[in-house]
Write the structure tokens for this entry.
Amino acid sequence: MISAPMLQTVARIMLTENQESLETTISRLTQTQDATASPSPELAPQLSDAEWANIVTGLGGRLGARARGHKSSARCFIEAVLWMAGSDDAYWRCLPIEYGANHSVYVRFSRWVKAGQWEPVIAGLPESDARRADLSRLVATHRASLERKQRYANHQPA
């Protein structure tokens, strides 16, 4: 979708070129935009309610208590990370906006890796589920990256 200021700018350019009225040009552009715009698809939930209940029981302390809330941001966050894990090495900036700000999700993911919070989530997924393997791979890759950065910062040989 084109933003309103951008639409007005395009309309003004077309107005000077075609000598149409501003309202006519904006109307024509809006109709064209509506006809070509595809509706943003609803994202399918990454977790069933039963899987979520299984994961929440594994999360301890305040994290588990906060995750049990009706509108849990923890569930949305975990679903965002599951989307990333299953997206074939997509960049974090490719994360759909419906899951939240990509940088916020990444920073929270990284903090959870450092704190070892992903083990209960991985354990809460069925053994034969591809999401479990994808999430394990993503967490292991990130952990290895953090260890490399730490070794480099400390100038220690591998």
